[in-house]
Amino acid sequence: MSSSTTSNPTKYQLSFYVPPANLEACKAAIFAAGAGRYPGSGNYTEVCYTIVQGGVGQFRPGKDANPHIGSVGELETVEEARVETLCVGEDVARAAVAALKEAHPYEEVAYQVFKMEDF
C-alpha cells in the first residue's frame, strides 16, 4: 500500500554512500526506479545532491562476510561519495532502495530513508 495521495504525496529522502567508481551506476539505477523526480510543472528529473570528495567510510568484515573491498577481519577504509535525492511516494522510495541494492557493489549497502514533512 502506497502512502502517497494524488494531491499531496508523501515525500522521502534517500541517502546512501558509494565508492566513486560505482557512483554513476547507482544514480542511474535509482533514477530509473523513479527517484529524483520533483512534482510540479517543471518536470525536473534526475535531481540529487552528491558529495564526492572528503568522505571516508570504514568497516571490519566479520568471519562470514564476502566483502567487495577489504578482507575478513581487517579494518578497511574507503573513499565514498554521499548521494541524497527525493522519492515521491512510498512505492518510489521502496523501488529506489531495491534498485540501489541491485546496483551497489557492497554486500551491505549503507543507506537511509527519511520521511519528509511538507510545511
From TrEMBL:
<dbReference type="InterPro" id="IPR036069">
    <property type="entry name" value="DUF34/NIF3_sf"/>
</dbReference>
<protein>
    <recommendedName>
        <fullName>ATP phosphoribosyltransferase</fullName>
    </recommendedName>
</protein>
<dbReference type="InterPro" id="IPR015867">
    <property type="entry name" value="N-reg_PII/ATP_PRibTrfase_C"/>
</dbReference>
